[in-house]
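Lecture 7, part B: from sequences to assemblies.

Below are the input chains for today's worked example.
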Amino acid sequence: MKILSIRLACAFLLATTASCSEDFLTLQPKDVLTDANFFLTESDAQAALIGVYDNLQKEPTFTNFADAAEIEWAMSGDMYEMDGSAARIEIHSLNLPASNTIITNMYSGAYQGIGRANMVINRVSKMDQLPADTKNLILGQAKFLRGLFYYRLANYFGGVPLVIDELNASSKLDIPRASVEDTWKQIEADLKEAAAVLPANWTNNADKGRATKTAALGFLVKASLWQQKWDDAAKYSEEIMATKVHDLLPNYRDVFRESNENNKEILFSTQFRASVDAEGNNLVKRTAPRGAPSEFTGSAAWSNFVPQPQWVNAFEKDQTGKIKDRRYWQGIIGPGEAHQDMPNFVMPVNVPAGWSRTGFIVTKYWEAPTLNNGGVNAPILRFAEALLNYAEALNETGRSEEAMRQVNRVRVRAGLTEKPLSLTKAEVLDAIFYERRMEFIWEPTGAFSDLNRRGRFIDFIRNNRANFSQLGVDKKPWLATTPIRLPIPREAWNRNKSLEQNPHYTF
Amino acid sequence: MKKYYREFQVFKLLLLLLLGLPGQLLAQSTTISGTVRSATDQQILPGVTVAVKNTQMGTTTDERGRYQIPEVPNNAVLVFSFVGFKSLERPVGSNTTLDVTLEEDNAQLEEVVVVGYGTQKKREVTGAVASIKSEDITKVATNSFTSAIQGKVPGVFIAQTSGAPGGSASVRIRGVGTTGGNEPLYVVDGMPLGGGSMGISGSSDRVDGLSVINPNDIESIEVLKDAAAAAIYGARAANGVILITTKRGKEGQAKVSLDAYTGVQQLWKKPEFLNAQEFTTLANELYTNSGMTPNPEWANPASFGEGTNWIDQVFRTAPVQNYDVSVNGGTQKLKGALSLGYRDQEGTIMETWYKRYTGRASADLQANDKLSFGSSLSFSYSQAKGQQNQDLRIGIFNLAQQFYPTLGREDVVNGSSAYYTTQGDNPYLRAKSIDNQVNNFRVFGNAFGVYEIIPGLKFRSSVGLDVNNNRASTWEPRAERGHYRNLQATLGETYTQGLNWLLENTLSYTKVFGEHSVSAVVGQTAQNNNNNWVSVTAREYQNEQIRVINSSNENNRRASGTGSEYTLASYLARVNYAFKDRYLLSASIRRDGSSNFGPNNKWGNFPSVSAGWNITEESFMQQQTFISNLKIRGSWGRLGNDAITPFGYLSTIRLGTVNDNYVLGLNQGLVIGATMSKPGNPDLKWETSEQTNIGIEASFLNNRIYLTSDYYIKNTKDMLISLPVSIEAGFQSAPSINGGKVQNKGLELLLGYQNDIGAFHFDVSGNLATLRNEVMSLGVGQPITGPSVTNYFTVNATYTEVGQPIGYFRGFIVDGIYQTNDEVNKTLQPNAVAGDFKFRDINGDNVLSDADRVKIGNPWPTLMYGSNIDMSYKGFDLNIMLQGVAGNDIFHANKRSAYPLKYFGGTGVVNGSKNVLNRWTPGSGRNDVPRLAYTDSNGNFGNSSSFYVEDGDYMRIRNLTLGYRLPGDLIRKTGLVQNARIYVNAQNLFTFTKYSGFDPEVGSTNPMMAGIDDGVYPQPRTLMVGVNLSF
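Predicted structure of the full complex, as structure tokens:
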């Protein structure tokens, strides 16, 4: 009120004095803070770090949707796209135009995360008022997340523009792509720094869900596998094992339960809670069968992706022809089968096409109806994968028998018999890839990227995808490169002409 | 002379006192009488004031034009004066009869127009100003004055953005100069009026924010088009300025008027959609084409017949009624005006309506010779109910086009999702269930005082206030209609409060020195604008009859809110100089400081200069009679546009929104996060536009033919653009920079002819304006890709780049349809088969890429025209207004949902346009609508292409009014009514267009979305009858 009266007086006195009018015209925004009055306290720094974590919750980044369903499992063909949306068809059919919106959003989502992380790393490292260990923990998490977003980009595109400074409107913004080697170097540097300072386990319950040492190591393993640095991969894997923080849960379904989140099998997962907004996710809506009664599915059910028959047929069966694998019985329902947690929901014997065109539904994430957005966390990296990654590294470094021990741990948990330890190196690799395929459906691993990393993708789809002959793989030269890269999005090139496209694609 | 007369009076008085003799003995006197006629047509003139100069004596002429004044000294002078005529003085002398004729005043020349911070005689104006008077405004009976300008002022392009009741319009003066805000500045009685339109939450309908001003209360509207006229409004004037002057009390007996009209509105055109038999036939074909099993329910199409016409279910004939009452009158010292209005309008789409109550009071007090005061206060209360229309998937309007003609009015979709979309909803039931409303209460007014320090020098101080309270509410009950679900009833309420005040002090001076006349004004203003809002969403109602926040589940409520403030301080000065009325010069400057800009660019200066030459005042023009008036004028000036998000100069940190927060911990607690929402640009400043204008005003043959023409070049530089930064920069939103340059140039012409032939009066005018809009530079920026057409049709249809108009349509060119599979170029279009569109390979590289996307249309008319015809004969009057545009295209985005029959982004099929009957089938040779298919792998519909672009030319009979004024004798017998007129009115009676959609008038507030028809609420045709009465 006082300010108002000063202003009124000023205004009335013809605002003749310069100071009067300057006072009148100098306002601070009411609804937002400015960078000049932020990054002053620890809570500012922590909030900015949370802002980086928030970016994981966007569908194109780490919610196990755009990556896991729309790209990974749709490309390998083990999950079928129900809707016929153009962008999904472009990926499923391996046409991969640079204008694909899923790829574009995934690319820009990762860079938004990188931008947020860069701000935290840049500003917080200059906050001398913070205690050293607090500061290190913040920087470690931010670097883990930056590494994670760059891992995503390197995984799909190879070398990408490396932005590690905070940019502003007057920065040079048309940044060319770095080499793939330099990109991996940057990822490893961030992850190593994170692994060095982060705890293997956050002791305070309120911190569960934050990045850990083992998460950083887990992605170092994956980065090493990509670069075929098998010794490094084995070494980092052993560091994970040495923490003794993680183990397989006895029961496969328990890994995903909302009541059992951040369990010891989880190295890293994106955190969600049931909500009307984006603190929750769409995993239930996207899996639950479209058209099924709302008492089981909740506010919406879209069954966007459903397992393909060839994937279901790949499960090991007993003599009677019944699937032995618990991963089927605990994560899938087919015609005539009851839901694991909602026994009153039984898939009809003749499943309506709207529910699932193949008759199967993934129930990993769908354990109950959701009123709005679901709260189940999206597992990004879990111990079963760490074991298989370790096995791959062991196998490549001449320790195939040890490798099979890791594979068998995953098999035993699935209720399958152990495989002999005497398999050849090639057989071990096949065994690893079989477990990846059966273990991780609708998770961001185990499908296209792992196959592609080892040059197995084309063979895999030749052997498995029913529509292989219609895919015209021969006429798609971008599928002939090793590894296969996704196209740099046209939208990125529109604004940054210094970008070079991956071979055989056009902008 | 005057002094001499006063002395004579004193002398006379002294003599009377001294001698006690009757005065008439000293000066001879007589009774004088006569008739007054009009010089042009010799008609008798009743009501002419006849005064004896410098005395209180006088009378007025009677109905036969006669007057009589007794005892007039024979040395006296009679003064005859009458509105619209030049006054005449005649000495009495020895006459006893004095018949006179009065010359009509040259009304056009002496017309006064309102300019910023003052008024000017029209003949002295050197800028491009168009003026519209109240009688022309009320001819078009709508809720908003913008309709009254539409098609009347060359260079002002108005398109209604929606046909929703109470809907708003987009107003563009001399093209679009920026990809940002393009709305002109509205100034009502000196007070800037913000808020072009108000959205209805949960609805695409918008309500005109300017309808707080009842058109019936407007005295005049002035459109300041060029820089010389608008520069006095500085940093906000780049898009032109519209000044609105409201009616004030006039001296004389209180006059009461009542205006009332009522009528009906309906669609003027209903594009046809498939009936049930056609739909099921085509649906079966679609499934068969795609190798899928057709719906067994639709096996026998003939059994369905016509089915339900959903357009007819959703659209209706809607009534409108409007009443205005006003009182006006006063004495020389105190004048007042009061008006009240009520409007009740239903929309042509079901469950939409608009109600408005307005009131306005003004008072003027002449306190003494030097001091006067005045004030005015308006209030309006408006309520509107809207529907979600502009959405290609779930809007009522679109559902009406898509929903199944096989289903009845109350049916819901339960069928298999292989055939029925699970996201569709019955439009009738949906419209009935959803209740989205906006309630607006606005008080708007000012108070001022004027003190005349010495003759000609006046100080004026004014305080203005605008209080705008808005309550928007959305309600959707719990619903399960087939596949459609809303499992929790949802209530949303948003309260917005705006407080805007303005202080203004000006000093003005007017003086005539011999042949020189000077007027000047200097002033200072300060304005503060404050906005706050609070919004709550509540879900889960036990009892849905109680629709308040409190009866929702306490754990299921979310609140949000924020506020903003803005200040503007300004200094202004203008001087006008005229020599012998022939040579006119004017210069103005405004200095504006705005809180929206950073310390580097807080203040800006906006000068203008202009000159004019009244050639007909020259002595060499006095001999001729052909040219009655000829003026040429030229101007230059600089204007600003500060319409950007405040605080763009600062890097802002956003805190605690869903896009910043995360959940952590065993109990998944919410943790507040922060992100930099936008990096700042400390050098950010307003957009500057510089405009050069040359104009000519002429009239011929005693003003029967009149003409105004202007040519302008308007260069906008430092256009505020969001830097199209590389994705890799990772900004959450792009910083604003002063990047682009845009040029608009055009020719404006108004030509009219007016004449009287006996009692028949007519005034016919036509106007046209050409416009060429071109982006000259985008600075460091890359071409700007426009926003997605809708959330679902994620195609960027517009593009802004150098050498092209802002927001032109861009996409592939469709070269017909592949007739056979052999014809398909598989390298170019790997997924195409016979029946798919053939996209043109522009660069011939045999790859269909972005390089093959080209300009496929221009949203901006290159020619805008209008015509106004006024005729009257005795008691009859007729007004016809035409308006049209040419040279523009429409991006008919609605085809995305009305042509494929396949529900896009979901399962199942939906209904579509009757034109789909012309789809390609093998051997049909058809080339316009592609084959029916479940998936669109060739992108027939998913690409922006020439398929969507249609010719946007239209010509519309916007208004037609036929009125009859009841004969005065008859009326006066009632003893109460003074004047009575009845009329019939039709709006949008005929529209001529080739456009295949519902309505070619698709205005948009966003220049990057201009000309895109994404399901715009169509303009209705309105038929009304009305009455004007005065008492």
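Note for the exam: Residues 13-26 of chain B have pLDDT under 50 and may be disordered. Keep this in mind when comparing with the next example.
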